[in-house]
Amino acid sequence: MGTEAMSGDEARALASELAALSLEDAAPEELVLFPEVAEEYFRDPDGVLHAQGRDEAVGFGLDVAMLTPYALAVVVPVIKFLASVVEETAKEEVRTSLSERIRKLFRRDAGEKQEGEAEAAAPPAFALSLDQARKVRQTAFDQARGLGVDDARAGLLADSLVGRLVVG
Amino acid sequence: MAGEDTRPDVLAYPSPTTSRFLVFLATLIAAGAFIGNWVHTEVRGDAWLAELAACASVAPPGGTLDAVLEQTAAQDRCNASAERERALFSVAGAGFAAAGGVLLLFLAPGLLERRRRLRELTPALAQVAGRAGEIAQEVGVRRAPTLMIGPTTLRDAFTYGPPRHYRVALPPAAAVRWRDQRLFDPVMRHELAHLRHHDVPLAWLARSVWWVLAPLLLLPVVVGVAEGDLSLLPGYAWRAVVLAALVQVVSSALLRSREHDADLRAAQADPDAIAAVVRGARDPGGRASWRRVLARHPSPGARLAVLERPERHARVTFLDGAVTGLLAGLVIPLVVATVTPLLSGTDKVDLAWVAAALVSGPLIAGSVGLGLCRGALVNRLRGATPPAAPVAAGLAAGLVLGHAASLAQSGAGSASLGPPGWLPAVAVLGAGATVVCAGLAELLADAAPRFRRPGAAAALAVLATAAVFTPVMWLSTLLETPLELGWDGVNAWLVTSLQETWVLACFALAAAAALLGLWCARRERRAPAWLIERGDPPAWPAAAPRGLREALLTGLVTGLVAAAALALYRAGAGRAASDAVAEQRLYLFFWAGGCAGGVAALWLIALRPTRGAGAAVLGALVASLATIAGWLVLNTALGGDLTLDFVNGIAKTPLALGFVAVVVVALAGLVPAAPVPGRARILVTGAVGAAVLAVLLTDPARLTPFGGAATPVGEEALTRAAGNDEAEIQLYVTAFASGAAGAYLQVDESIAAIDADTTLAGPDRAARITREVVVPLQALLDRARAFTPSSATVSDVHADLVATLESDVLAFERFAVAFATDDAAAFAEGQAAREQVNGTRLRWLQRVTALGGG
Q: Which of A30, A47, A68 sits opposite B153 (nearest CB)?
């Protein structure tokens, strides 16, 4: 069970939304380039995530990477996990509404509601338990570390991600 | 001595790597000249040979001297057009490499942007450019670069673009953090420092020229393989490979050094911020040593070490010397090979060696000399004296390798290594010049507080060290030919050809720089404010309050002792019984004057090992002048003439020898020892001085080149030593004929090698004869025709050589035709011409030997 119940576009849209939300806390300055970077990422995830820094002539010798691609990579397993949680708690729902139910788990700042979410002003039908939230954090952290993100940034990313989910 | 909180401004002087970049570019462009010459051989080789052959028959050799001279002049004028065409091909090759490099410099940015997907900032990031503009103003870059942004995969910032249209490519992660003063500001300052230091055109031009040159270097290999003629490959291919490897290693090393410069410049605004970013920078070298050699950035650890102690960056290392020497060694023979045919038909062919020295000497000065001066200045703040040994050894090794590996030596076989003593002599002179410059650097550091701006001090540093390196490069390159003849050849060359006015002017300039430093070292001052980046200028101690007096007194005493020894010798030996004896005494005086300079230099170096090598230049000049003055007094008292022309005629040689003596003796400064205690110093220097005098006086005949003139004339010949028949005979025997004989021997070796190669087919044999025999013989013939002696005796002997070479060129041209076309008639013509050669060549050698009295 998981994101198989959603189309690829739906899963990608959910991942983008959740990554952008987490970046609002983890690296808000990167949002200005979020659409371009997300497009690059979805076109060639491995190429973006495993890009090797070049030893540029007349350069600085820096190796600074955007957090955005890692945020996108991290939310993919989280979305899968959320999908399984949502499916278990709402088996009667039809497939097409799965992504909407996952989306309701996203915690947005005031004024950030998506179109069609006006009715969602009401509290969500359910929230993640603390254990589930911990699992999300661990999954995100492990995924980020697995991609080579250092502990501090991986922790920041995982925390900002969990912080953007509704936990009961 | 400065406190730990005083931070030197290592960037007060221009970076020595700028000059190293220029030598690098000169080497690449000169390699283009080699390719141009190769293209000429391929495209116009036959026509060129035909033209030279036609010139050889412009007029039959006349029976009279006038006829021979007229024929020589006519052939010379005739050959000049063919030779100049060959030179133009070389110049065109160099021009193609240079122009192609410049063209690529302008085209590369567009290609780079497409390949790396760089684009201008989006409107959402417009404020990034604003912040970059503010930083550019802060650091004094008038025209802020255009900012570009790369894809997510771009993780480093770098600068590129044609002059005046520079662009900085930013990784998106840095661009979006433009408000982050701990990341964006230091990175921008670093990149703007690259712009301010002109790193972009230097680095990209070197790259562009190499991109043009690399395929050109493959041409001789491809054409050789396609035509089945591999004779050039053994001598060429490894040299081309060495050049290619060198390009990668040297360009990376230069870029690494420029990164330190950019870090230090960026640190002037906020040292902590740049250090923090550098701490997180990538280590491009990693652990593998070959990666470190090719890395364009130093490791973060090395960068932080330099940021913490900038004086570390002012060290001049073995590698700095080796790279500079290697590049200079590569370029010198190429310049000579290009300029020589350009000057064909004139009597200025010798200027080719001067041109090579004028290219290499100032560039070595701008690299090693300026580096030594900067190192002396910065280390003075810490009370330290940087060692000269590593860079001296590096320059010596580099020059030797460069001379042997130059493309111009392709096809020369073992002859590229010259006579056995040549490359060691190149090493000794290169190392000695470096030690002298290290001494001058200390003295110029003494004078630094007198300069209000660093630019003037740096200009003087380059000028003074160029005055040492330029004549030394000229001397060491030209020594190859005299060394073929051993001591007699070297001696003859030193006493007849070294005393060029420009060499003496260089000696005087270096001595003046030493005088300035020693004058300024008498009193304590404050460190120059322009040298201090942070903190108060500390006291600049009087390094050698008595240094000036020591140098002048040492020179004076040594010179007078030498003059007194000459006077005693004259008193003991009596009046010269023959012209030959008078001539011996003239050479004895020349050498006494030169050696006096050497002994004075030795004393001053023993007194103060590093600084002494600089003071030695002044001391040696004074010593040689004092010897000359003493000898003039003696000669005048004995009834000799005392005219300005006479003084001018006899003073130049001992002065020039004094200069060479300083450079050689300076090697004593490499002995890793504390200043020698007073008594030991007196003993050692006294013993050396006595030994020198003993060697000079016990057998003065050995100082007379080739035994001297055979015909006894009167002692009055002493006063007309210069500009007469005897002098020209000596010049011919020692300088010209010796060189020509050596070159002829090399051609003989090539002929023997071709004869021994039984695998060669007819056309291949013809090609090798043309390339390895006809071309050098023709060059020798050009030189011979360019030499027009005024002495009838010399002209008569010289005509034998010209006739020999004409016959030999004709003989081998016919052999080439015979092998190429299987033409028996041509072969017979060649044999007939060769038979003439054997007779005239032997006669010429016998007559030269007779002229030399041997």
A: A47
